[in-house]
Amino acid sequence: MFDGNRVVHVSIEQDLLAIGYHDGAVVLGQKLARLDSADRALLLETFERLVERLAKS
Predict the structure, then answer these.
(1) Contact 1, 16 (CB under 8 A)
(2) pLDDT band per the 50, 70, 90 thresholds, residue 2
């Protein structure tokens, strides 16, 4: 399990989940890097609107 910059061992199952999430984040990052600038801008705008809506709720 990750806590800031340090790794905290909780259980094997949670460690495996953390690794899975990390691998997923790496794959997502690679896919995002392949987007062109227009698609990245649209994605960022959509994400910002989502964050604003969540902050209001």
Answers:
(1) no
(2) very low
Q: Rounded CA gap, 13 and 18, in Å?
A: 9
For Cα atoms 43, 46, 52, give the angle at the middle one, nearest 5 degrees. Answer: 140
Measuring CA to CA, how many Å separate 33 from each of 23, 24, 27, 37, 52? 15, 14, 10, 10, 24
Distance of CA 28 to the CA centre of its chain: 8
pLDDT exceeds 60 at position 4: no
Length reported for the chain: 57
| Amino acid making up residue 30 | Q
Which residue type, as a one-letter code, is found at position 33? A
